[in-house]
Amino acid sequence: MASKLVQLQSKAAQTSQFVAKHGCSYYRQLLEQNKQYIQNPPTVEKCNLLSKQLFYTRLASIPGRYEAFWKELDSAKQLWKNRKELKVEEVGIAALFGLECFGWFCAGEIVGREFTFTGYYV
To answer: What is its main location (predicted)?
Structure first.
């Protein structure tokens, strides 16, 4: 166990040195590639304006998402009506998708409980 800890510490040190050496160049490269998205000057007013634009843009997209939701729901209802015509492959894919959703739910619960399997700390 101690040897694993030493290996982990050495890997962490190597990673830290790599980031310290190459982090600035990566940061500059990332900013250069995305300079068309940078607002100059970066003022509080500009940030407030952008946050309002984002909020109202998202608000304006609600009707389209609402319609898409009802289309998806109608599609699911249609599948349920015609469930006798479903192929085994389609049912298997749906079952695997449901199992994956359940697995992600369980993983989220475990992370939310601070990586305990038995319950919440009180």
So the answer is: mitochondrion
Regarding pTM above 0.85, the answer is no
pLDDT digits (tens, 9 = 90+) for 64-122: 999 999 999 999 999 889 989 989 999 999 999 999 999 999 999 888 888 877 776 66
Dig out the tokens for 95 from the structure: 């079952």
Instruction: Report the C-alpha dihedral over residues 7, 12, 18, 20, rounded to 10 degrees.
Output: -150
Task: Evaluate whether 99 touches 105 at the Cβ level (below 8 Å).
Answer: no
Distance of alpha carbon 60 from the chain centroid: 23
Residue at 64: amino acid letter: G
26, amino acid identity: Y
Residue that the structure tokens 């290996």 belong to: 7
